[in-house]
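Record format v2
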Amino acid sequence: MTRHTFGIRARLVAGFGMLVVLLVLAGGVGWTSLHSTASSTRGALRGVEEDARLSTGLAADVAREVAEAARYVERSDPAAEAAFDSLRWRTHRTHRVLRRRPNQTEAEVALVVTIDQELSDAEVRYVMARRLGELGRGAEARAQTDSARATEARMLGDLGRLAEVKAQRVAAVGVVVAESTGRRAFLLVLLLLAALGIALAVVVTVIRSVAAPLEALTAHAGRLSEGDLTARTGGRLPRELAVLARAMNRAGESLSRIGAGASAAADGVHASAGELAAVSARLSASVDEVTRSISAVSAGAADQVEQLRRVDEALRGMRAGAEQVALEVREVTALAGEIEDEARTKRGESEHTLALLLGIRQTVRAAADESAALRTAVAEIGSFATAVNQIADQTNLLGLNASIEAARAGEHGAGFGVVAAEVRKLAGQARESAEHVRRITLAVTQRVDATSGAMSAGVERMDEVERVAQEMGGALTAILGAAERTRRAAASVAAAAEHNAHAAVLAAGDVAQVAETAARHADTAAGVRAATAEQEGAAALAAEATARLTRSADSLRALVGHLRVGEAEPSMHPGEPDAGLPGSDPAPPPTERPSGHRGRRRRAAV
Amino acid sequence: MTIPAPPAPARLLLAFLATAVLAACSGGSGTVVIGTAGPWKEGYALNVRRAVEMAADEVNARGGAGGHPVEVAARDDEGDGVKAASIARGFLDDARVVAVVGHANSGGMVGAAPMYDHGLVAVSPSATSPEITGISRWVFRVTTNDSVNGARLAEFAGRLGSRRVAILYENDVYGRDLAAAFRAAFRGGLVGVDPIPGDGSRVEPFISYYRRVQPDLVFAAGTTASGRALLREARRQGLRTQWLAGDGWPGVQADTAAAEGAYIAIPFSVDDPRPEAQRFVAAFRDRYHQEPDANAAMAYDATLLLLKGVAEVGADRPRLRDWVAAVRGARAYHGVTGDIRFGADGDPEGTRFVMTRVSGGVLRPVEAAR
């Protein structure tokens, strides 16, 4: 877009270089002129000097010859003739040198030739006078001498004129030198004027070549300051200004881009504000919904607390049941203890009886026959003992089941009652068995009584009674063990019941904790509800802020819309087509420009 | 660095224009003028003029010099150096004049030479004075230098056995130089060395004096006018002596009685047997019904030489001058008087010297002298 030509510095250097060259040229011309003027003056003066010397020499020779001629004519001696002859040739030699002087004017040549002719004529007349004298023709000789003297007079006049002419030559030389000097001075002045003209041209050219781009750049800056970012400066500029123009063009492009970006951002902010408003609305709705949900959660928490209270109550009931079981188990234990005590007592009685029997064995031996029947009754007691054993086992199992159920009491406390019932039933059975044993024992006692009567009749049967007694002791021992086991089982049941009760207490504590948690949840829900209320207020504030944002975006859009960011327009050289289109061609290198533009640019810029 | 004075470019421009015009003229249309000058009332000078005109006509008959028609501008300088200088000035200022055949006598040539030195080539056919040697780089001559002629004449006089010799010289450049050359070379006795007027007047006292001193031989260094007067006066007074003269005298033989027996040394003889010489003699006779003399032959050669130069280098004075100066060595000009070569001083190389004796009004080459 911008092409730079020679820089301002280069122009100044070139211009002043030309100026210096011209001044040097003028100086050279001046020096040469002075030198050549001096040389030509010297040459001319030398010529004049030589002319003067020769003219003087000629005049001297002529004077000598004339003087010698008088002697030559008057005395007829050979020495005078030889001397005159010698002087004639000498004078003509001098004259010849004078005649051959270069650069003579026609007047000089004429005078020199005339002098020679007059001299020659005079010589002829002198020689003729001498010959006439020798012939004794004195009158004719004198006439020739007079004539010769007249010619001499003319010749001397011509010599004087020659001197004048030579003097004029000197003057002419002076004039020529003056003219030559004048011409050279004129040339010097012309050269200096030319130098001045070129200097002016250079200065004007430089100023114009700098001023026009500067004006264009100023206009460019003005348009930029008015917000017209399409302004571009192109063309051929001085290098420094081309750099500035490129920088301004880039600034314009950058500002265009920023303006476009700002406009887009304003639009985007506007749109975002709208979206934000919608989001705020949705947020408000969701806050309501959350509030409702939190209320529901709060209500649910209350329900949960109620339910937990009910669970607590159930657990308390369960605990009470378990305590009742424990109480009843303690009764069972006490019963078992009683059974045990009774059995121990019976065993002691039985042993006493046995000892009695042993003491009476000799007496009852006779009742050996009764022994078989006693043995049968003891067998029945054995079977009864077996039944008791079975019950004891069953009770044991039930105790186990009760303890398992007690372990499950944390979930369902209800099953515990069944176990407790079974235990109670077992306890009933055990009681029935104990009664049955007691009844059997009673029958045995009756039978022993019967036997004792019989033993008295039948002592022989005493061994058998002993054995039965011993067996009964064993049975009582077994009963004792069974009672012991029952007591232990009841103790276990009691421990289980106690454990159950404890577990129920723990469960109740847990439930209380849960209830407490639920209550806290409810409290939290209330807090959340309060926070939601605050959020609702914030959403309202956000909506208000969004509205302000929208207004700001609108004003920003209006502001950016004021910036012209369309096609770039060159600000330099109005009317000149510049192909710089920032949109399609933001910063093309100078070489990519069509040559036609460049040509016009060059003409316009230089 | 040479900075010409302001008018110099103008002069250069004029010179350029003139050259351009002349170059255009060399195509054939521009007339060239050959100047010639001499004392036409003198026979030898008249022959010069006639020969120049004849040569120009012959060239025009062949189509001109390189296509240029040739004109002859003949001026009478009366043998006077002052007039000669003035005429030379006129030739110099006339741009059509490309060269001068002249001047005919030494006095005129010596007077005019300073003018020709300004830039016009002059080839004298008959000016023999030693003073002309090297007088200007623009001045040449075809005839032999008098210093050479004088020495050969002195030698001839010695061979004739002359012991008492009188020298009469026209008191001008030609006469003085020839006399001086003769005097310097002559080994015998001299009874007198007397200057005489060039116009043939007032010779009576000298003849009267010679009747008294009776020289064996009188050497006359002069021209036809004074020669004729001397011969008539000698015949009138009955002076018996041998006359000897140089190339200034041709024409005196017309005065058959007075001139009979006189020895005259000339550069060219009509009896030269070479075909070109005979062709010239015949043409001159046909045209003027008169015998040509050596001056005519040399003027003819000088004219044709210059016109050949014009044909070769055009009507350009400096180039013509350089062309003439280059007629030397192998580039000799083959004229009717023989091969012409110029030395660096403008004089011809070699000598043209034919000793003749007047016999019945005709110059007969002297066999013994050849």
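The beta strands of chain A are 2-4, 231-232, 235-237, 365-366, 459-460, 569-570.
Confidence is low (pLDDT under 50) at residues 573-606 of chain A.
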